């Protein structure tokens, strides 16, 4: 007979929700009219920067992601016969596994590289030569590298698409896509002809150093009608928060950008709180804004949601996990379906799922 104490520990409940709030994608799916022609151009593009997207393409990507998420068991053969080269030369858990999960869920095969010391690069081989070999071995490449120029170097020699999965402190465009997808799942009315009240966003982070923050802000430039105000919270002066040209790009797009150093003054009016504390610099992670923390006692609006790209540290307390503010787990889950949508487009398989209910 199993010990009752052990019995209690080993049991789990499959039907327990893994997210809080209404994270189901069907409302977003219904809110966006399918216009698949906007996705066709992605089959001839590398995914390098959030700057390369336009509003129409973003909305169609989100719709396709919502279709996958609403019917996760319906689409399992879209990438049959396709091979993904998953090259992660910088530590990663969520990004690598979500890309690989996305590819597997659609029926494709994967070759993974998780240590550059096991490749020809360790012998001095150029990235251009590596890219030339990749042309022969796979159908798509996902690359994370602490060197900001690595993706660009490989792009120059590739005849198959490559996705920038994080290049140093520069960008992380697919994380930003997943972040914005989460916001629109929460408020699908914002992309309809009758949107509700605009959002006030509190962004705790450093745009000059954090690739997740930089890429997300670039995407938000396409939705000035969605955000009434974006407040950047950090312990730096405003002129230190932004890299050259960042603030000008945001303001020229019509976004109202404020800066603050007191988080608790901003929280009571924020609809969405996006918090990050680390940035990859050199060969290690560096933490910024150490005095900013969120927990269940923080003065959040009752209906505010909290997002975090994860992995987290002390800035995001686990006391928020079992509250309705927790949308960061939904954010991580949705990233799989967003990447399924993007990968389908890149390898010219979108026609297999468009117009399918």
Automatic annotation (TrEMBL):
<dbReference type="InterPro" id="IPR006130">
    <property type="entry name" value="Asp/Orn_carbamoylTrfase"/>
</dbReference>
<keyword id="KW-0808">Transferase</keyword>
<dbReference type="InterPro" id="IPR036901">
    <property type="entry name" value="Asp/Orn_carbamoylTrfase_sf"/>
</dbReference>
<dbReference type="GO" id="GO:0006520">
    <property type="term" value="P:amino acid metabolic process"/>
</dbReference>
<feature type="domain" description="Aspartate/ornithine carbamoyltransferase carbamoyl-P binding">
    <location>
        <begin position="45"/>
        <end position="183"/>
    </location>
</feature>
<dbReference type="Pfam" id="PF00185">
    <property type="entry name" value="OTCace"/>
</dbReference>
<feature type="domain" description="Aspartate/ornithine carbamoyltransferase Asp/Orn-binding">
    <location>
        <begin position="198"/>
        <end position="345"/>
    </location>
</feature>
<dbReference type="InterPro" id="IPR006131">
    <property type="entry name" value="Asp_carbamoyltransf_Asp/Orn-bd"/>
</dbReference>
<protein>
    <submittedName>
        <fullName>Aspartate carbamoyltransferase catalytic subunit</fullName>
    </submittedName>
</protein>
<dbReference type="GO" id="GO:0016597">
    <property type="term" value="F:amino acid binding"/>
</dbReference>
<comment type="similarity">
    <text>Belongs to the aspartate/ornithine carbamoyltransferase superfamily.</text>
</comment>
<dbReference type="Pfam" id="PF02729">
    <property type="entry name" value="OTCace_N"/>
</dbReference>
<dbReference type="GO" id="GO:0044205">
    <property type="term" value="P:'de novo' UMP biosynthetic process"/>
</dbReference>
<dbReference type="GO" id="GO:0005829">
    <property type="term" value="C:cytosol"/>
</dbReference>
<dbReference type="GO" id="GO:0016743">
    <property type="term" value="F:carboxyl- or carbamoyltransferase activity"/>
</dbReference>
<dbReference type="InterPro" id="IPR006132">
    <property type="entry name" value="Asp/Orn_carbamoyltranf_P-bd"/>
</dbReference>
């Amino acid at each position: 007979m199993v010990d009752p104490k052990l019995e209690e520990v080993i049991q789990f409940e499959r039907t327990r929700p893994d997210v809080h709030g209404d994270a189901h994608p069907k409302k977003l799916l219904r809110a966006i009219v399918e216009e698949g022609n906007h996705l066709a151009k992605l089959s001839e593009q590398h995914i390098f920067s959030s700057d390369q997207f336009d509003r129409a393409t973003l909305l169609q990507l989100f719709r396709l992601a919502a279709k996958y998420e609403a019917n996760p068991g319906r689409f399992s053969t879209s990438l049959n016969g396709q091979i993904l080269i998953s090259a992660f030369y910088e530590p990663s858990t969520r990004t690598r596994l979500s890309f690989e999960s996305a590819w597997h869920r659609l029926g494709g095969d994967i070759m993974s590289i998780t240590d550059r010391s096991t490749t020809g690069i360790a012998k001095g081989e150029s990235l251009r030569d590596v890219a030339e070999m990749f042309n022969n071995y796979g159908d798509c490449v996902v690359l994370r590298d602490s060197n900001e120029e690595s993706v660009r170097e490989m792009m120059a020699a590739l005849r198959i698409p490559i996705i920038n999965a994080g290049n140093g402190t520069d960008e992380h465009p697919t994380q930003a896509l997943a972040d914005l997808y989460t916001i629109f799942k929460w408020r699908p009315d914002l992309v309809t002809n009758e949107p509700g009240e605009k959002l006030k966003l509190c962004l705790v982070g450093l745009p000059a150093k954090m690739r997740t923050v930089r890429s997300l802000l670039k995407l938000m430039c396409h939705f000035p009608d969605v955000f009434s105000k974006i407040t950047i919270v950090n312990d730096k002066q405003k002129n230190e928060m932004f890299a050259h040209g960042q603030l000008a790009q945001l303001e020229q797009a019509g976004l109202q950008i404020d800066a603050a150093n007191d988080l608790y003054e901003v929280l009571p009016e924020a609809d969405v709180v996006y918090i990050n504390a680390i940035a990859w610099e050199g060969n290690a992670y560096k933490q910024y804004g150490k005095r900013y923390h969120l927990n269940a006692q923080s003065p959040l609006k009752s209906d505010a949601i909290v997002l975090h790209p994860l992995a987290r540290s002390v800035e995001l307390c686990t006391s928020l996990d079992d509250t309705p503010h927790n949308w960061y787990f939904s954010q991580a889950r949705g990233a799989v379906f967003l990447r399924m949508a993007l990968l389908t487009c890149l390898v010219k398989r979108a026609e297999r799922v468009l117009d399918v209910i």
